[in-house]
Amino acid sequence: KPSCSTYQASSSVNDHLLCCNTCSGGLWKIRHQRILHAMSLILREASVLMTTTDVVRRFGIERDEGPDGLILLDKSIAIDVTVTHQTENAHYYRPHQRYQEKISKYKHIATILNWDLAPLIFTSHGHPTKPTQKWLKTFAAASSIAGTNRRLPAAMTIATVRGTANTVRLTAAANTLYP
User: What is the dihedral of CA 123, 155, 72, 100, to 10 degrees?
Assistant: First the structure.
């Protein structure tokens, strides 16, 4: 059972665990890294160059202040992966909200460095948003390997779902050990 002050007994425990940074925040990183890893594997096989935050840091951008990496096509495209959970009682569409937050967060950096900005937003159930689908098609189109346009979103969706399952399972285990 979640232990923070924002948990309400009427809420779904899993909904709360997937939304609350206090109760499961550190475990979200596993899901995040799974998605980035799946993306980099497919793009590497497709001969599309993707760099990670190591390159972004060379521009003086600190960890968690900048995007997750860059896709290097004709123009550099800054990517940032986010997974959001749409709860039953939310009165707004959380994926759209997260998209807008990412655009606002990186707009200044992207303008200065002349990068395009691609927030890659997935729901906790693995569904990519429409803008995310468009960006994934753009990345896949840079490949000459047939099927990349299907493999890339499928691999990232699977990584999201598995990462969500890891988050729920590890949070439950942590709550058992430290009630």
Answer: 0
